[in-house]
Amino acid sequence: MRTLISTAFISLDGVVEAPGGEPGYRNSGWTFKLVDFLPEAYEIKGREQGEATALLLGRVSYEAFSPVWPDMAEFPEYRTMPKYVVSTTLAEDDLVTNWGETTILRSLDEVAALKETEGGPIIVHGSAALNRSLSDAGLIDRYHLLVFPLLLGAGKRLFSDTDKDAQKLRLVEHEVYANGIQKNVFDVVR
């Protein structure tokens, strides 16, 4: 069974919306506008590219990343890595042609089936709504969180507010950086 890893830049109050400057959010770009850049705080991002064997995205994140990420020097491993987009509305004609193999998954059942295939870790970037659904369905195995020392108030959140049983997490790696960012890696305890 493959490991499904959710990776996120997240504010202390749980917001994951527009960390890189995506339009339409009042605090857009909060990761670089409001916190000093320290390269060592982002080491996990390079490690994720080296360890992941597939990329899973929701439709909104796919539509935001696919015009930009294929040509970015920061994401070379993601160029050729198989990609999966979870969407009920995206059509094959909507997929970009310069970003490698991309498969549309129409349901969480298809994500669960993908996890049962042979291969290494699958990483989820962005995709706030998808992350909430995956978590509620018990499909996420690990969280890679870079927690920023910010309170952003309104915005898309990583975790759902669904009334459900408590989910225990085990901290397997952590570090605090001089700029206040905390790296927290949690395994989901089943």
Describe the model:
The chain is of the alpha/beta class and 190 residues long. It has helices at 30-33, 43-51, 59-65, 76-80, 108-115, 128-136; strands at 4-11, 54-58, 83-86, 102-105, 122-125, 142-148, 169-176, 182-188. An 8-stranded mixed beta sheet has the order 4-3-2-5-1-6-8-7. The mean pLDDT is 96.
CA radius of gyration? 16 Å
* N-to-C span: 14 Å
Poorly predicted residue ranges: none
Mean pLDDT: 96
Shape: globular
The counted number of beta strands is 8
List keywords for this structure.
190 residues, alpha/beta, 8-stranded mixed β-sheet, 6 helices, 8 strands, globular
In a few lines, what is going on in this structure?
With 190 residues, the protein is an alpha/beta fold.
